[in-house]
Amino acid sequence: MSTLTVAKKDFQDAARSRLLAGLIVVFALFQTGIIYWMTQVTAGGESIEMASVLDLMIIPTYILLPIIGTMIGYKSIVGERNSGSLKFLLGLPHSRRDVVLGKFLGRGLLVTVAVLGGFIVGGGLLFASTSSFDPAVFVGYVLTTILLGVTFVAVAVAFSSVTKSTSIATSGAIALVMVFLFLWNVVMMIASELAIRANLMDRLQPGEIPPDWYLFLQNLNPTNAYANVIASLVGNSSAIDSVFTEDWFGLLVLGGWIVVMVGLALIRFERVDL
Where would a tag sit more exposed on the chain, N or C end, judged by fewer CB atoms within 10 A? Predict the structure, then answer.
C-alpha cells in the first residue's frame, strides 16, 4: 500500500505542475502532425492504408518517446534527495523499496496517460483519414508504444536512484538514450570487428545474414525491439528469419529492460548513503 501511496502522490504532483498536460500536448501535436503530413500532404488527401502510416511512424516515435521518458524520470528520486524531501518521505511509513517502486509506477503512469492522451487525438485523425482502420492493430501499437515509454522511465529512475547529482543522473540517462538511438550501430561494428579478430565470425558481405549472436545483441536495443514489434503488427516483419527479430522477443526485451533497471535501482538505493 505504501508503494501505491508514493505512486499516487508522485503522479498528482506531476499533474499539478502541468507536466502531464504539457506532455499530452507535445505527444498529441507530434502524432497528429505526422498523421496529417502523411495523409493530407504526402497522399494528397487520398485514403491511405493505416498500416503504411503506422509503419512510417516507427522511427519518429522511438526517437521522441525515449526522450520524453527520460525527462519524466530523471529527477524522480535525486530531485527529492537534493531538496531534502526524500528524508521526510522516508520518515513516513515508506521503505526505500516503496520509494523506488512508487516513483517508477507514478512516472510510468504519467507517460502512459501522456501517450494515451496523444493517441486519442491522433487516433481520431487516423480513423478519419485512412482506409481499413484495424482497431486491434491500433490498440497493439498504442500499448507497445506505452511499453517503450515506460522502459525509458525505468532507465531514468535507475540513474536517478544511484547518484546525488541531478546533472549526473541527467547526463547518464541521456547518454544511454543517445547510444540506443544513434550509436548502437557503432556498438555493433565494434562487436563484429572484435569477433572477426577472434575468429568467431567472417566479415559480413552485402546481403549476408549475420550470425545469431549478432542479431541477439542488435535487438537488445529497446528501440530496435520496439521497431520489430510494430513492424510485425503492421505486417512488415523483418526479412531475416530469426527468433531475435520476432515480435515476442521484442516484447521480452522491453519487459527485460524494465525489470533489470528497476531491479538495479532497488539494489543500489537500499545501499546508498543519504
Answer: N
Comparing 5-9, 41-45, 112-116, 223-227, the range with the smallest average pLDDT is 41-45
- Of 274, 265, 222, 225, the closest CA to residue 245 belongs to 225
State the Cα–Cα distance between residues 20 and 110, nearest whole angstrom. Answer: 7
- Average pLDDT for residues 214-223, to the nearest whole number? 92
Give CA–CA dist 12/10, Å, rounded. 6
Taking a C-beta distance cutoff of 8 angstroms, is the pair 219, 253 a contact?
A: yes
Distance separating alpha carbons of residues 85 and 143, to the nearest angstrom: 34
DSSP string, 107-152: HHHHHHHHHHHHHHHHHHHHHHHEES--HHHHHHHHHHHHHHHHHH
Other CB atoms within a 10 A radius of the CB of residue 111 amount to 26
Q: Centre a 10 Å sphere on the Cβ of residue 118 and count the other Cβ atoms it contains.
A: 24
Nearest CA to 23 among 84, 68, 82? 68
